[in-house]
Design brief:
This protein is an alpha/beta fold. It has eight helices and 15 strands. The chain has a five-stranded parallel beta sheet, with helices on both faces.
Length: 259
């Protein structure tokens, strides 16, 4: 009697419940697959991945406690599972994926794109390409580790024919102001010509958080947080300024609210 082939074991990792439900729905009719576990946090993912030893992991990048890259750093498996990254727009992460030829799903993704990524993973599973992909993941982790140490510590300001620098630790908040950014410190506000996405990528996320498409605040200069509505908050800063967060950036607030 022929033994039926074992199913491909999958773990879904995403801190958003609706995202996990959708991925599960897209996988449930495939007879080749078995969903071993679903995880709502990075810490839970490390535990379940090491316990269940999945073949494929759908891994969200932006999560509280541990992000997707930090999860992978704590996995102790050989062979390493195939990873399909799931991410909201992050041009630096996406650039790294493209450089290392690693597959990813960009939220919000279409069903067709999901099945394309899944089919590629199924074809690679158990083949010689799987080890090659593991090496690409390790190279990616080395690169993201280097990125952590490249955040700026001072910001150049050009004004009235002179150039000077302000230390990033002295920045209280940054707000969009037309084609400029309004950078506020304890003593003064400065206008610089730079895009919000650009400066966000240059600032250490351990100290700065984007709470709205038009504002970034220094975590160390938060004086008080007031609940506003659903997942929105009012941040009162050390200079007395009040800024409201938006629902679109609620995931960024997790590490601030959990401190």
């Amino acid at each position: 009697m022929t033994t039926p082939p074992s199913k491909i074991k999958i773990i879904i990792v995403d801190d958003e419940r609706l995202a996990r439900i959708r991925i599960r729905r897209l996988l449930q009719d495939d007879p080749d697959l078995e969903i071993a576990a679903e995880c709502a946090s990075g810490k839970e993912a490390v535990q379940k991945i090491n316990e269940y030893r999945p073949d494929i992991v759908f891994l969200d990048i932006q999560m509280p406690e541990l992000n997707g890259f930090e999860v992978l750093e704590q996995i102790e498996l050989a062979p390493f599972p195939l990873i399909i990254f799931v991410t909201a727009y992050d041009k630096y992460a996406i650039k790294a994926f493209d450089i290392h030829a690693i597959d990813y799903l960009l939220k919000p993704f279409e069903d067709e794109r999901f099945y394309e990524a899944l089919q590629i993973a199924k074809e690679r599973f158990g083949s010689a390409k799987q080890n090659s992909l593991s090496q690409k993941i390790f190279s990616l982790l080395e690169e993201t580790g280097k990125i952590k140490n490249t955040f700026i510590e001072r910001l150049m300001v050009k004004t009235e024919g002179r150039i000077f620098f302000i230390k990033t630790k002295d920045i209280i908040r940054i707000k969009a102001s037309g084609k400029y950014l309004d950078v506020s410190t304890d003593t003064k506000s400065h206008l610089i010509r730079m895009a919000m996405n650009e400066i966000e990528a240059k600032l250490d996320p351990e100290h700065f958080v984007r709470i709205h498409r038009s504002s970034i605040i220094n975590i160390n200069h938060i004086k008080e947080i007031q609940y506003w509505y659903k997942t929105e908050y009012i941040f009162i800063l050390t200079n007395g300024e009040k800024l409201k967060s938006s629902n679109s950036y609620r995931k960024n607030l997790t590490r601030v609210l959990n401190k």
